[in-house]
Amino acid sequence: MDMPTAIPSPATKEIPLDARRWRKTLFGMLLDSRARFGGKREVIEDNQRKPMTFDRVLIGAMVLGRIFARRTQKGERVGMLLPNVATVAPAFFGLVAFGRVPAMLNFSAGPKNLLVACKAAEIRHVISSRRFVAEGKLEELVAALSAHVEIIWLEDLAKTVTGFDKVRGVVSSWFARRLHGWSGAKPDDIAVILFTSGSEGAPKGVALTHANVLCNVEQFLRTLALRPDDSLFNPLPVFHSFGMTVGLIAPFAIGMRVFFYPTPLHYKQIPTLVRESGSTILIGTDTFAAGWARMAEAGDFANLRLVVLGAEKIKPATRTLWRDRSGIELFEGYGATEAAPVVSANTPLYHKDGTVGRLLPGMSYRIEPVPGLDEGGRFWIKGPNVMLGYMRDSAPGILEQTPDGWHDTGDIVSLDPEGYITIRGRAKRFAKIGGEMISLAAVEAYAAQVWPDNVHAVVSVPDERKGEQLVLVTDRVAPDRNALIASAKAHGVPEIMVPKRIVTVEAFPMLATGKTDYLTIAELARRGGAAGGE
Questions:
Q1: In what order do the strands lie in the sheet with 150-153?
Q2: Which of these, 46, 150, 307, 453, has the minimum number of CB atoms within 10 Å of its CB?
Q3: What is the count of structural domains for the chain?
Q4: pLDDT for residue 3
């Protein structure tokens, strides 16, 4: 089949990329930033309120990295099962410094998905914390892991560190660039393994190179005009690509202070900490941002100049909430783990509500038509930030390289003449009913208009007569399907887009990344009872 011509990003000519800024390793970036901003500059802080400087992170990386190197092999994928705490930085950079590949494990994914991830990337060692496991009640998860991998406990390592080790770490930090050079790491080598969320199937390992990650940092730093004097509040887990690249790597790249918080679900505490930390930038998802805004008090968000949300569409009600209560505009972005992850973003300069902004500089795209769809098509992307390839549990440790550098996002999108991208839905999230293609995302948006204060998801299940039927899963108490029908008639929405059944849940299934857990929702729809009738 002839492929549509690749189309460059509209931002390519406006914001040219300088390869010298990202053609390096992640540890090389750390050393360059330390030289630029000074070793005493504070760069990362967490809930313990003990900021770490570049020097402290670097020395910690030298100490931990040498210990990790004794227990692992060069090039080995080493699992990291840690929360958002400052210690993540020296552990992460310690692995990279000595030629190991951090594999960021999703501790909320459950034993089954976690074991699939470990098998896919051939992970034999996992770094974790006894305190974290105890506080997170993850004993069952770790027990399942322990049968297949060796757990390296940070608390146990701390007890073995001698005074000589610490002195050696300080001395090593003076020669860190030479030591890292001996690892043989190159910009195009695999730097980190992340895993797809598992929201639609078994997780896959995503192999990102040093250049992939650092190019993406350069792309969105330039696009969003982030500055060294900014301060970022990051409540997103580092096993999530948004939380890792934007929330961990980018601050070190430009000397921007970052405040790590272990969970985005503490809606009451986070607004206060955003104010107390003096943060100017906040990242998250629509679900989390709505919760923070509802619990915020006057002045909590006074210092914020930029709030960037991804992973799910921003609801109009969330925009209104932030505008009315804090006078803040929300900027929606779009990403994929396979793109390290940022693909597009709205900015203060280039912004259009309802879209996910324009493609980042240096990227190209093509849109393939989908039979049955009159508007939009399947979105393919290419660029220096697009992954090297996948690792799957069906072929452990084998890199399945991205063909010709093109990645099929699986999303259905349309672009306007100015290059703004509108997400129409997932290609997998379309149902064929009565010969017509129905976007499940469009049905969700329609349900949200009828009941804006609730959370909704629509899935399709088998139907004997029409092949498929739509089921709405919602946290609304006693939903009346007649309200959907009446609204559909009033707004000219075809009745074929009205869900046949409604299933009510007390707690809406969400992943820790803020994405909707469609696998669980599909199961609820298949076995759930009807509310509101046929």
A1: 150-153, 125-128, 77-81, 101-104, 190-195, 205-209, 389-391, 400-401
A2: 453
A3: 2
A4: 46
